[in-house]
Amino acid sequence: AQSVTQPDIHITVSEGASLELRCNYSYGATPYLFWYVQSPGQGLQLLLKYFSGDTLVQGIKGFEAEFKRSQSSFNLRKPSVHWSDAAEYFCAVGNTDKLIFGTGTRLQVFP
Amino acid sequence: NAGVMQNPRHLVRRRGQEARLRCSPMKGHSHVYWYRQLPEEGLKFMVYLQKENIIDESGMPKERFSAEFPKEGPSILRIQQVVRGDSAAYFCASSPGGRPSEPQHFGDGTRLSIL
């Protein structure tokens, strides 16, 4: 069965530090992969997506993600975190007619 | 330039009452998805609809839950005889063509609280 795993429930970083959020997926075919961000009390905003081609994809707000088929991973990165990046981050895989989400990683940013 | 619109934002019901959640997709989108988010969890797919058709309801509980997307008007998620366990955030998303490669655009959700 298709699934998405985000092994880190909660991550804390200092402002200006680099960030990597992990995502592993289980999917039989070529996956469609997404990262979404959710601020408290809000809906989900798309950060970036991967379908094919270049395995390093750029998104909004300075985020990027790298697709590694051999590791079944799609990790999200940002070189320098801002306090406004504090939020919940969800990795998802597109499966025919639905998205399958991971359980999310909560990012806390200290000044 | 409206995105996906959900209302109400917050809904409080007593056990046994009915809850109706509404979703208007983005302009030009004819595919609607409903997801449920329980506290401290990710989003779980419930149902996928096109205008007047339910395409996939594999994530819907077998009883008390129903969804529709009429020819005119918003999509409605209906929960009859609500119970405490129905307390959650319910999100609606839409896409233009229903293809898995298309990002789904989400509304801000309805937070349902059951007293």
Quick overview:
Chain A is mainly beta. Chain A contains no helices and 12 strands. In chain A, strand 5 and strand 6 form a beta hairpin.
**Annotation field: number of helices of chain B:** 0
List segments of chain A where confidence is low: pLDDT < 50 over at least 5 consecutive residues: none
Largest interface pair: A-B, 23 and 25 residues
| Terminal CA distance of chain A | 41 Å
SS-derived structural category of chain B: mainly beta
What is the subunit arrangement here?
A: heterodimer
Radius of gyration of chain A (CA) equals: 13 Å
**Total beta strand runs of chain B:** 11
Description:
The complex is a heterodimer of chains A (111) and B (115). Chain A has 111 residues and is an all-beta fold. Chain A is 0% helix and 55% strand. Chain A has no helices and twelve strands. Chain A has strands at residues 3-5, 10-14, 19-21, 24-26, 32-38, 44-50, 56-58, 64-68, 73-78, 87-95, 98-101, 105-110. In chain A, strands 2, 5, 6, 10, 11 and 12 form a six-stranded mixed sheet that branches. Chain A has a four-stranded antiparallel sheet with strand order 3-9-8-7, with no helix packed on it. Chain A has a two-stranded antiparallel sheet with strand order 1-4. In chain A, a hairpin with a 2-residue loop joins strand 10 and strand 11 (98-101). Chain A is globular, with a radius of gyration of 13 Å. Chain A starts with a strand and ends with a strand. Chain B is mostly beta strands and 115 residues long. Helices cover 0% and strands 49% of the residues of chain B. Chain B contains no helices and eleven strands. In chain B, the strands form two sheets. In chain B, strands 2, 4, 5, 6, 9, 10 and 11 form a seven-stranded mixed sheet that branches. In chain B, strand 7 and strand 8 (75-79) form a beta hairpin. The radius of gyration of chain B is 13 Å and the shape is globular. The A-B interface holds A 32, 34, 36, 41-46, 49, 51, 90, 94-104 and B 4, 6, 33, 35, 41-45, 48, 55-56, 59, 91, 93, 98, 100-101, 103-109.
